[in-house]
């Protein structure tokens, strides 16, 4: 099973400039995030706070254009061909 992961902004830079990544053998969003460790540990740490076991506060994730907060959060299932969008919010001052 292959999942397409789309990264935007600073996250793209942390993935060595790649817009898209493909991950296999993942069943939910948590697996997708854990799979990013193999791409870049900095990318993983920018997205997920392992000490709190949750996403960093400014991270938005959608599966097939639906916010995971409206689904099952990190336990949202993913299937072959799904697209997972991960981006960091930009905060103004």
In short:
This protein is of the alpha+beta class and 93 residues long. The chain is built from 3 helices and 7 strands. It has one domain: Roll (Ubiquitin-like (UB roll)), CATH 3.10.20.30.
Question: How is this structure best described in words?
Answer:
The protein is globular, with a radius of gyration of 12 Å. It has a 5-stranded mixed sheet. It is α+β, with helices and mostly antiparallel strands and 93 residues long. The chain has helices spanning 10-14, 29-35, 41-47; strands at 2-7, 20-24, 48-49, 54-55, 59-63, 66-67, 83-88. The chain has 3 helices and 7 strands.
CATH T-level fold name: Ubiquitin-like (UB roll)
Tally of extended strands?
7
Order of helices and strands: EHEHHEEEEE
Number of domains: 1
Number of helices: 3
Average pLDDT value? 94
Specify the helix fraction band.
10-25%
Structural class: alpha+beta
In whole angstroms, the N-to-C terminal distance is 42 Å
Topology of this protein?
Elements: E1 2-7, H1 10-14, E2 20-24, H2 29-35, H3 41-47, E3 48-49, E4 54-55, E5 59-63, E6 66-67, E7 83-88
Keywords:
93 residues; 30% strand; alpha+beta; globular; two-stranded antiparallel sheet; Ubiquitin-like (UB roll); five-stranded mixed beta sheet
């Amino acid at each position: 099973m292959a999942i397409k992961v789309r990264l935007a902004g600073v996250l793209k830079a942390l993935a060595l400039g790649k817009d898209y990544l493909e991950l296999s053998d993942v069943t939910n969003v948590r697996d997708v995030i854990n799979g990013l460790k193999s791409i870049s540990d900095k990318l993983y740490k920018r997205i997920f706070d392992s000490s709190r076991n949750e996403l960093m506060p400014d991270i938005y994730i959608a599966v097939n254009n639906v916010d995971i907060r409206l689904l099952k959060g990190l336990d949202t299932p993913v299937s072959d061909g799904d697209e997972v969008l991960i981006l960091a919010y930009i905060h103004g001052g």
